[in-house]
């Protein structure tokens, strides 16, 4: 049964479908769609991930809510890579542990949430890989191996270094042209 925050979340999401509606620490957060620079980085990440995703029969979804548990926050990453027909909470929400990879592009207003809040919640929900693309610092950070409510590995690459995604990906994301 949905609680009051969940009901308000659904109402706001239904009222503002063109916005990214999330819940974070007991509050509803409405984010505008990204700038052209943000959307360019989203596009560049799609271009890098599409080949390996298609080869493995996965799909890349923008603007899907990630269900992290009954009382957990609801986030909408920039991209969610999922297997075909992943386990869904509702038509607009995929279970976190049913994803293959979540990707967020860091913005000035999302730094704290992206680096300090989301990794813990994603790890607790079993999201296998969480990738942060940070144009403010020209870095890419990968969180992996969720265990005990936190990620067991964190890999940070800077500048033009390639980032090797572990199994089931097993390929390098070229980051040099992102910046």
Automatic annotation (TrEMBL):
Pfam families hit by this protein: Uma2
Lineage: Bacteria, Bacillati, Actinomycetota, Actinomycetes, Streptosporangiales
InterPro entries on file: Nuclease_put_TT1808, Restrct_endonuc-II-like, Uma2
This protein's name: Putative restriction endonuclease domain-containing protein
Domain Putative restriction endonuclease positions: 17-165
Organism superkingdom: Bacteria
Classification via SUPFAM superfamilies: Restriction endonuclease-like (SSF52980)
Gene3D superfamilies for the chain: tt1808, chain A (3.90.1570.10)
